[in-house]
Amino acid sequence: MQRQRTFLMVKPDAVQRGLVGEIICRFEKRGFKMLALKFFTPTRALAEAHYAEHKERPFFGGLCDFLSSGPVCAMVWEGNNVISIARTMMGVTKPELSAPGTIRGDFGIDVGRNVIHGSAVPEDAVREIALWFKPEEVCEWTRTMDKHIYE
Ligand code: DAT
Ligand code: MG
Fold first, then answer.
1. Where do the Nucleoside diphosphate kinase-like domain residues begin and end (predicted)?
2. What phi and psi, each to the nearest 5 degrees, are found at residue 68?
C-alpha cells in the first residue's frame, strides 16, 4: 500500500442537498486524513480546467455550467491507497449503476448530478490538487490515531 493524496469534491447538487457532512464523515470514519478544504463557487474557467480531459464530449458545456453553478466543497485527503479506495467508496460514474453503500449508489440517480468528484489516478490527483489549492493551503499534520489505523 502506498501513501497517497487525492482531490475530492462535493459537487453543487450535493451541497444544495445538505450532504457535505455525510460525505466528509464517510472518509473520516474510513480512516483517511483531511489535509485541505475550501467552500466556494468555482469560476467557469476553473470548471473547464478541471474537466479539460472531457472538452470534446457533448456533455462538456453542461458539465462546466453545473460545476460552476454554486458552491462546492473542495478537499484534499491522504491515506494508503486513498485514490482507488475513495473511487470504490464513491461508486461508478453513473449513480444508477452504483452499488448501494457507495456514495453515488446511496445518493444519486442521474449521471449529471452524481454528487462527488474524486481523482481517478495518481497523475490526476497531482494535477487537480495543484489546480484547486495553493501549496500553503494544504496542511501537513500528524494525527495521533494513525497507529490505530495502520500497522
Ligand atoms: P467520474 O466523475 O466518475 O470520474 P468521468 O471523468 O468519466 O467520470 O466524467 C466526469 C463527469 O462528467 C462525471 O462525473 C459526470 C459527467 N459525465 C460523464 N459521462 C457523462 C455522460 N455520458 N453524460 C452526461 N454527463 C456525463
Ligand atoms: Mg473522471
1. 3-140
2. -100, 15
Cell of 47: 470548471
Res. 1 pLDDT band, cuts 50 70 90: confident
- Give yes or no for residue 4 CB within 6 A of ligand 1: no
Instruction: Tell whether residue 30 is among the known ligand binding residues.
Output: no
User: Does 93 appear as a known binding residue?
Assistant: yes
Using a 10 angstrom Cβ sphere, with 0-12 exposed, 13-18 middle and 19 or more buried, the burial of residue 104 is: buried
Residue list, CB under 5 A from ion ligand 2 = 120
Rounded distance between C-alpha atoms, residue 86 and residue 83, angstroms:
5
Give 9-60 pLDDT, tens digit per residue: 999 999 999 999 999 999 999 999 999 999 999 999 999 999 999 999 999 9
* Residue 18 CB partners (closer than 8 Å, separation 6+): none
